[in-house]
């Protein structure tokens, strides 16, 4: 058990540091997206105004929810088209020193959809199937714009609670400010810190090394630090290397591992405080923070416990005994179990998707914990959209609570109508639908074979396909691979691309419509029967509502996957 809690103090201190910084940084985010004065205005305002003129828009031009969505689709559609063309033509474009050929149409489609939607789920090997220019120019552009889109959507939906004119803001202004005020400066600082910790930052693409065993080895280099910085900060998760954050070049030490964890946690844990700042009710942030912490801390504890537990099936392997687990299979040995587990749980629960261990080799219980984080998508979830997903659960919870006491539900002085509930339900239900429907098609259509020599092996194959579609639908990007499941086929590329696009833009449209509905309402003064949402009672109610709803939607597939693997053995 001492192994399980090794360096647990590092984990506790890191979480405490994030929670200490989050209220201040969240307040800063709120001021940025409410266009209130912040540090750097003197320098950045002229730059941003030039960008607005170039785009033909103005900060004073506010959009309706539909106009906002059209602008969002135009920008993201342009990014998707640019990425698709770049990947198809990378073999003949400049910046390809190793002669990487262009991608097939289906792989290019999957990759373009993946990076446009902030998913960064890859069906290719970075070192051999993507050119240097694709990494530096195409992919890195998407790292910024996809994250900025998520922050813009959160800002637009939250504005619905404070406006009465039916508008939610200007998408182009929000994206610009998200890049100039948040993502770009923080990613530069993060890159500098990673360089100091030993992560490469160079435009020399390869270096030839001479190992002690003799011969030579070609090592891929590049601006790894800057790439990993925005990848982690923007909850993208795509790695410069195929091994992602398990690579010693991208993540050389326990210190860089903890720093990467901090970077992933910063914006998602700060967004609830941005909400409190924007609606001018800072106490409203705490129920969301409480819900996130309850689910996250329990998940982290369970993950560490599952990983630290002895595995009786290892006793049958030559050289191992039941009590000699050492580091569990799939666990990186350069940091402790607690540090590695914190990184992986944060990565999945914050919808980053970066890996510092082999998820397919960890315990079935650990896989189940990670799946649950992608099922909720909101504890804390991805950049911007994670918090707005939790806000959708809050709207549904308040509506159900209102029905229980026989009172018209309202939130922050705005009535929750059937239209709000319908759009919230659509956003919540599109997630299981985009997982289970293609899963059924894959199995019934013969595109994947789940059978194995044992019940456990069959359940593991089931978990692999379930994990892939869940990761794509949640715009997460992490992967649980199985040798018997080939996900590089045309079916998985096309199905995965469509899942990512639907899982991203359908909920976003629902969020904007809900924000637009609220923005048309006047504020109602609180009455004696008004539900106090800034309370411990509401925190518990929201947490239970989130957990029960998620369990009802996904418990059957967990029983056939990870739970079946536990019962059936290896």
Lay out the secondary structure.
Layout: H1 8-33, H2 41-55, H3 65-89, H4 105-116, H5 126-129, H6 132-159, H7 171-196, E1 206-209, E2 217-220, H8 224-233, H9 254-278, H10 285-308, H11 337-349, H12 364-376, H13 385-405, E3 410-411, E4 414-415, H14 418-444, H15 455-473, H16 490-518, H17 536-560, H18 562-568
Helix pairs in contact: 1-9, 2-7, 3-4, 3-6, 3-16, 4-16, 6-7, 6-16, 7-8, 9-10, 9-11, 10-11, 10-12, 10-17, 11-12, 12-15, 12-17, 12-18, 13-14, 13-17, 14-15, 14-16, 15-16, 15-18
Run of helices and strands: HHHHHHHEEHHHHHHEEHHHHH
- What structural category arises from helix and sheet content? mainly alpha
Terminal Cα span: 23 Å
Q: Please give the order of strands in the largest beta sheet.
A: 1-2
Give me the oligomer status: single chain
Helical percentage: 55-70%
Strand content: under 5%
Uncertain spans: 321-327
The biggest beta sheet reads: 2 strands, antiparallel
Instruction: Give the overall shape, derived from the CA principal axes.
Output: globular
Contiguous helical run count: 18
Radius of gyration: 23 Å
- The strand count comes to 4
Q: Give the rounded overall mean pLDDT.
A: 91
